[in-house]
Each structure stands twice: as C-alpha cells, then as structure tokens.
Predict the 3D structure of the following.
Amino acid sequence: MKNELLKKISEKSIKVGVIGLGYVGLPLAVEKAKAGYITIGFDVQAEKVKLVNEGHNYIGDVVDSDLKELVQTGKLSATSDFSFVSVVDFIAICVPTPLDAHQQPDISYVKSSAEQIAKYMKKGTMVVLESTTYPGTTEELLKPILENGSGLKCGEDFYLGFSPERVDPGNKQFKTKNTPKVVGAVGKDATEVIAAMYRSVLEGDVYEVSSPAIAEMEKILENTYRNINIGLANEMAILCDRMGINYWEVVDAASSKPYGFQPFYPGPGLGGHCIPLDPYYLSWKAREFGFHTSMIESSMMVNDKMPEYCVERASKILNKSGKALSRSKVLVLGVAYKQDIDDYRESPAIDVIDILKEYGANVDFYDSYINEYKHNGEVFKGIAGIDGKKVSEYDLIMITASHSNVDYQMINDNAQLIFDTKNAMKKIDNREKIEVL
Ligand SMILES: NC(=O)c1ccc[n+]([C@@H]2O[C@H](COP(=O)([O-])OP(=O)(O)OC[C@H]3O[C@@H](n4cnc5c(N)ncnc54)[C@H](O)[C@@H]3O)[C@@H](O)[C@H]2O)c1
C-alpha cells in the first residue's frame, strides 16, 4: 500500500476529499487543487456547497479568482453526498470542535463525519484529522469508528493520522501554503506517506512526529501557550492601570530584548474558534488522569473576566466626565474577534455589548467587516457607516477590534471620549480623549 500511494502522490493521481468547507477546509481544498490534485469538498451545509460549485468564495484567506478557476477547470467541486468518499484516496477532516453548554468538548462533528467516511471509504485510503482536539482522539475515537464502519484494518487497509491545522485567518505573511505542518500517524509507513502527501502541496516544512497523540498535544500546547500568555498580558494590563502605568509602553520596551521575550497584548477577552476553546479540551482530558491544569484554569479566569472589566473601565471613564454609563450613548467599534477579519465567533466584543446594555447604556456598533451578527437567536445590525458627525453623537467610543481600515484620526478629531482596548490609536499624537486598556 505504501509504495503504491507514494507512486500515486508523485504522479499527482491521488484524488483528495476535504470534509468541512469552513475557515480551515476551504483554503486547504483550494491548495490541494492548486497543487494539481482533483479535489472534492464535502459539507453538510447545502449553501456552502452551492457557493463553491458556482465558483463563489466566502473565506477571506482564499483568492476569489483561484477558486473560480479551479471550479471552472474541474479541479475543485463540492458535495453533500458522502458516497463520493469512495472515489477519493486522501481525506482531510476539518469539521468544528466546539464546546458544549457545560464547556466540555463537543466531538459530535468529528464522530458523524467519521461515520460517513467509514460507510464509503475504500482500501488504500489515507484519513487525516485536522480539527483541533484532545490528545487521543485519532486513535481512541476515530480509529474504531473507521475500522468498525468500514470493516477495514488501520495500517493494513488504510492509513490514519493527525495533522493540526495552524491557519491564522487574516495573516498576510503565513497562509495555508507556507505554514509548516506537523504530521503524526498510526505507524511509520502511514507517517511517511501522509507527510509525503503534504510535502507535495505545501511550501512550508512538514515535521514528522511518532504518533497522532504527539501531534494532537503539540497543537493544544501552541494554543494553550497563547491563551496563558494573553492571560498574563491581561492581568498585567489591569495591574498597570491600577498603578498608573501604560502597559502598552511596557510591553514595547520589553520587546526590545532580542531573546527570551515574546510580546502578547491585552484586549477585551479571547475570541475565535481556537484560543478560548482548545485549552478546555486539554483540561477535560487531563481529568481522566486525575490531573488539574491549574495554569489553564487561572488564565481562563483572567481572560473570561475581561469583557466585564472593560465595561467597568468604560463606566469609570464616563464618570470622570460627570456621566453615568446608564443612558450614555456608546459606540462599540469592532465585533470581529481580531483585527482585519470578518469572523465574530466567540468574540468578546459581543459580551462587552451585552454587559453595556445590562448596565443601561444605549449601544450601537460599527465594524468595517461585519454588518450584522447573530447572537442567542437574534440578529443585531450595526450602523451603516461612521463619519465625524456620527462619531460626535456618542458619549463614548469603545474600540474592541483594531481594524486597519478605520480612520482613527477622524475618530479622535470628533469623539467626546475614547476607550481603546486594543491600542488601535497608538499613532494618534493628541491623546487627551483617549484611555487605553
Ligand atoms: N478557524 C481557525 O482559525 C482555525 C485554526 C486552526 C485550527 N482550527 C480548527 O479547525 C477545525 C475547523 O474549524 P473552522 O474554523 O474551519 O470551522 P468552520 O465552522 O468554519 O467550518 C467547519 C465546516 O464543517 C462543516 N461540517 C460540520 N459537520 C460536518 C460533517 N459531519 N460533514 C461535513 N461537513 C461538516 C460545517 O458546515 C462547516 O462548513 C476546528 O477544529 C478548529 O478548532 C481552526
């Protein structure tokens, strides 16, 4: 099986399937197709399947013309019909791994896609899980579902591995194609073949590890490292404010050290589908071993309180001008979870808006990437645009995402008060109206 697959990879005659056409799956499917592989994307959302088959892109990191050309030349197509799994040789699973209502891993999307794959996969297929998950998922959960459902044997009839997705939406320098990839598979042959498959597509290095669990754990380590360091930045920012010290200046100064320090910045909380969620996958699994991940818990406590803390600061800033938060008009700038993207999943700005409203503020939002957001079954629409007159109508402008296409000078010229939780206005000289987190 190994030599046959390596030969097919070198001839580019492998057919690729990507399960889940979201922020991770669609860019991956496009890269595989661009590398010359006939690629089929699978998604349960009929709307996404339709858009792809019409050549319409809906993910910021994908180039519209690339997608259109790949669809027109027959290199890329999409379907909700899993029976097409029978024609592919390589399958990447890129489905969501959220938390349930009790902050525990919701692995149901991985399970249901595996069940579908198992029904249709043929001998000689490579299956790779790319969704972020707890260490053990590939061998403890995925392997038995695939073996029992297909009647095939892992390592003999098909290869199975884990390769964490590292895409950083909105990153101008590192995209799917040039970001190094880690591969850990069940057995040496599987690792060699799956790594060869990624090498044939990507410019970045492919780093092989000895098991899927190592690859699963290294991904969680990456994201936990970010989570904990952001927690530290947030705690430092709260302390610095109490001591009358500007944290942003502190972190810039610390960054002048050429080794041993990496800057992390505070903000209104954690957002996105990864950093706020993934450490919980590890905490949950750790409990099976009677282990408490106390660093993660502490960091979560700090990060989870940030929206509330930011609203308290907003209230104090208004008080200093003789105004109460209740009945004040507040414009929240940015509901995306980070700058220059249109994704608001888990965005702390949405919590900030909810808390501001709880305290009786009249809140509007504006986001240059997002016109409206859905939250608790309701749709919230932003104001259509901002100009000097509009900005001047608010008692407070609260910046919660530092999009680079916003005219911050205009905001400073016209605002009454500004609370900048992201240091988006760092280049503004006259800082009389500005308070930073
Ligand atoms: N978004 C990121 O920045 C990022 C970065 C690194 C890793 N990840 C990880 O990648 C995984 C996917 O994240 P995402 O942001 O792409 O999610 P997403 O919600 O954007 O996309 C997932 C897609 O999977 C589809 N889907 C759900 N169940 C399915 C099924 N059974 N069969 C076929 N399709 C199904 C959904 O309809 C959706 O289109 C997650 O585990 C996430 O943690 C995400």
Notes: The pocket of nicotinamide-adenine-dinucleotide is lined by residues 19-25, 42-45, 48, 94-97, 109, 112-113, 131-132, 165-167, 169, 273-274 (CB under 6 Å). Residues 308 and 355 are 7 Å apart (CA to CA). The first strand starts at residue 15 and ends at 19. The domain at 2-210 is CATH 3.40.50.720 (Rossmann fold).
